[in-house]
């Protein structure tokens, strides 16, 4: 049974009139891929929304890949970056292009997003206007495993800044109404242009991973109203962690540390780092049990770099012996302290 106060856009028939609808710019970022971004581009272009332009940012792909995109995407919609600037840097190029136009809303999209309903954007904009939101997202449907379809409505943070994915609509709504810190995923995030001017763009220190959580925390601190629209769904090409590359494991670990250092201080930071390391220790054990040594070492390198405050992009993810020894010693101490606390 849906709660009465849940933000819903079922009244699609009362859509924003074409004459009065605000301008929207969608930004799709891609790197060394052709099929996924082209399909995403096509579904976004099929939106029944007149004042809508689409920008595809190529994030330094190899020449044959870019040429394939160039053959299928109109020149006015394609932006080329010479070198890979990461998700944050690449998306910021697209966001800046969008802000230079007259658009009032910017829709940032992963390149593996599919929007099956042509009325999705119109319904989202209506929800933004009716509810006076600064940020909103449709429900993200991850159907990598057809036997276990996952719906993502957002993330809830505890006092230690540990993010819990909210996969149940009622749980999401309960936490949102209670005023808990709920961040929206950046997979298909619709943002009011004025909010981006107020908060700034994505923090490029993160490169990839956790930049949406950082943006959500900044929005929360600035009292920007946000919501996941539970009645609208889009599809996302989710890939489980065990099938991802080393970069994912490195940046996921490193950026959790950077996020805590940025948003907490003093004793709150120390407590957050301790419990964060405790949770990450469980992930390390999971990698060890699964025989994923390279992923585990990339994760440990991420922890090391996060602790020393490294923010630059990494091309290689090989951890030195002394770095690995220091992280393993740290985890022994975390295990000992955890037993003492319990």
Automatic annotation (TrEMBL):
Domain Glycosyltransferase 2-like: 27-199
Keywords: Glycosyltransferase, Transferase
Pfam families reported in the protein's UniProt record: Glycos_transf_2 (PF00535)
UniProt-recorded Gene Ontology molecular function terms: glycosyltransferase activity
Homology family: Belongs to the glycosyltransferase 2 family.
Protein name, per record: Glycosyltransferase 2-like domain-containing protein
Organism: Acidihalobacter ferrooxydans
Taxonomic lineage from the root: Bacteria, Pseudomonadati, Pseudomonadota, Gammaproteobacteria, Chromatiales
